[in-house]
Fold this protein.
Amino acid sequence: MKRKSAFTLIELLVVIAIIAILAAILFPVFAQAKASAKKAARISDMKQMAIGFKIYAADYDDTTVRAWWDWIGGPDNEAIHWPQRIFPYVKNSQLYIDSVGTPQPFPKDMRDTRNFAAGPNIAMNWHAGNSIPETAAERPSQLIMLAESGVRDWFGNGSLIRAASTINPWDWRDIWPGMDVSDGARRSIRCVNYEKLGSPWMMNHYDPQIPWSLDWRHLDGASFPHFDGSAKFYKRGSLKPENFYVSDIPAYAYDGRANCDF
């Protein structure tokens, strides 16, 4: 009689251990590759948005799009923000929505003007949002036009999911010189600490500045379209005042984090 061959328990355990080791090595590599692919796709999206801004400016006497909303009125509180103004030049709502940023904006059609207008999970640079002429930008290849932003209902009641029209200015003193900030409410994108808050998706009533802040979604970085029509990926912490101010940069913009409460 021939004896049937079979794997011993030790041999099976060795094979399982080898597979587990390979999986532990390969899965992070696959995850990194997937994240890199999403990062590359987002840079491409931002490049298309940058081109849309350039074409818009060409049609409006070399003046860039206005970021601030204009109220139309009606029972649905209709208004127009920069997403609606730029839409005819990009014709794709998906460019406004980063799939990595959750929760997703609603409504997803960027032509929708209901409830103070559809808001993507990107927002305009506060400093460049007031219909500036193209000749005003002293550093067009550095000046960012859009930024990945937090996305929550900016009314704070949970009824809508949207981002603000603009991100906060670089420094809180740009909003109102002499503004009383004794309560620690720093109105600056540099002064919202996601690690301190615990989550970038906390509701607006916890910290009203979240929708106006940067969100570093991709490999601890984010993609930004520039004033000159280019786009670039920046790592967290690498942005400078030159990336935000259109022309002159105030001295206090270089104060670092000294004016933040963390």
The two ends are 80 Å apart (CA to CA). The longest strand covers residues 221-225. Helices lie at 9-59, 82-90, 194-197.
